[in-house]
Design goal:
homodimer, mainly alpha, DNA-binding, Four Helix Bundle (Hemerythrin (Met), subunit A), DNA binding (chains A, B), GntR family transcriptional regulator, carbon starvation induced regulator (chains A, B), Arc Repressor Mutant, subunit A, 3 strands, GntR_C (chains A, B), transcription (chains A, B)
Chain lengths: ~230, ~230
DNA sequence: AACATCAAGAATATCGACAAAGGATGACAT
DNA sequence: ATGTCATCCTTTGTCGATATTCTTGATGTT
């Protein structure tokens, strides 16, 4: 049997830390004690520093010389700018995708849209959220991939990583009602329709609006939790 | 007197390494021997790994597990995609800047455009290139900053960092003739003109074209040097 | 004779532990 | 109550052991 390509501990530590920061296990602004991390992940200091350095480059962690590492703070200002930037980038990518996408691209959009729309058999709420979120991501990724530019997709991904902390806040606080789900469903259907009609300008505007809808809700959640 | 905030060795190593990679001191694809780096920068392994991790996150260095680090390879495919992505992003940012920029923004554009246009008193060729390049960057940064979005500007910066290796190739190979300089000057003047007239669509198109002009030249240089 | 395969040795990356330097917190004195 | 000092904790840099990988040379096969 072929061994998994045994990635080194630094990479693993990076993924675990990133996951825990995004899921809110470590609070924004919290100090990341080496001793705590060491016992939590059962690792040496070397791999941890390596992982933290990468997260600093991604702006998920901030480093202060001689004073260690802290989780990057969250703020309403960052929320607003981040979502705005992401909406603009997604709009740009969509415009290019409509310009450049081929038949396989269209087929992929229809396929992922279909599986996303089929999320109705609600079991537990948690499981619903997980499934819905996964398929939602796949749907949007399918749309974006039509732009056919690795670097633009990479930019998109990096913004998405930064957004995920805020999105997570939203997903955890929001119970997706049947009504809300239906509203999203129709938004997505309209989006698919406009995209397949290759109406770039209108599609980009719809995408931007679609992506900005969570902002007021997240703002409210943050103010309630005093993260302001 | 205030002390310089004595940054740790990892940060310093990061800057030195980045500079040497961008300037081509380390060839694309070249293996980065720890022993070589150790003696070159007179540092231990810890800080070096820290710096390399950050460069991996920026995609300027690639890490292969258990097989060390290599300088990220350069290719014609990456050149094309990178410049395309950058041109699209700059176009987007410019459109937003025209929408959102205020009087101070306009003033800053005029100021930096003026200092850039004044680069005529040619001394040594190297010095000319340095001065021109610095002012050129300042000019474009002034334009972009009008979008008023830290995250978009950060995306722009990260793409620029990746582009710099290719740009450096261009700047080193190209002797800026008086004719070429004059051509650039008129392009910039036209750009400023359209921006101040707030013609977003036309300005974005001009900016994209302006940024794509070096691509054929760089392509030729790379083919000649066999980096293809 | 040339090429592929394999094995042994050397080099290198990777990890954990140890020592030094710099801040932060708390107590004590004024 | 405030300023100063001492102690503790944390970060930071280097060193040494271990496991993995690359290279080189020899052997067998075509």
């Amino acid at each position: 049997m072929e061994h998994a390509p045994r990635q080194n501990l630094g990479i693993s530590a990076y993924h675990w830390l990133k996951r825990d920061i995004i899921r809110g296990t470590f609070q924004p602004g919290q100090k990341l004690l080496m001793s705590r991390l060491k016992e939590r992940y059962d690792l040496g200091i070397g791999p941890l520093r390596e992982a933290l350095s990468q997260l600093v480059a991604e702006r998920l962690v901030v480093a202060i010389s001689q004073r260690g590492y802290r989780v990057a703070p969250m703020s309403l200002a960052e929320l607003a700018d981040l979502y705005d930037a992401r909406a603009q980038i997604e709009g740009l990518i969509l415009r290019l995708a409509i310009e450049r996408g081929d038949d396989a691209w269209e087929a992929d959009i229809l396929a992922t849209a279909h599986t996303l729309a089929k999320v109705v058999e609600v079991n537990t709420s948690d499981e619903l959220l997980d499934v819905w979120d996964t398929r939602h991501k796949a749907f949007h990724t399918a749309i974006a991939s039509g732009c056919d530019s690795p670097h633009l997709l990479q930019v998109r991904q990096s913004l998405f990583d930064k957004v995920e902390r805020y999105r997570h806040l939203w997903l955890r606080e929001t119970v997706l009602s049947e009504a809300a789900l239906e509203a999203k469903r129709s938004e997505h259907a309209a989006l698919v329709d406009v995209i397949l009609r290759r109406d770039a300008e209108r599609a980009a505007r719809m995408m931007r609006d679609h992506l900005m809808t969570p902002v007021p809700i997240i703002t409210e959640v943050m103010q309630r939790q005093g993260i302001a």
